[in-house]
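Quick question, first post here. What does this chain look like in 3D?
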Amino acid sequence: MERGRIANGDNTLIIKDSDLADNAFSAGNAKIIIENSNAAFLRARDNVEMTIKNSVINGDVIAENNGKITLINTKIRGQTVKKGNGKIIYLNL
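> Answer (accepted):
Ran it through. C-alpha cells below.
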C-alpha cells in the first residue's frame, strides 16, 4: 500500500462508531463501509466504492473518476461533487 492511502487494491475496510478526520486517499478497487460515524470529508476516486450508513459528514462528499459513494440515512453538511464518471447515490435521506 502506498503511503497515505487508507484502503487500496481489492481490500475492504469497515469502520464503525468512529470519528474520522477524512477519507480522501483510498484508491484502486477498494471498498469502504462506514457506519454510525462522523467524518470531516469523503472522497472516492479511481474505482473506490464507499457505503456510508447512519453517519454525518461535516464537509464535502466527492466522487471522481469511477468512484461511487452510497449514502444511507446520512447527513451531509458540505457539498456533494461528482467529477468524471463519479456517482453519488442517496437512499432513505
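Residues 12-91 form one domain.
The radius of gyration is 12 Å.
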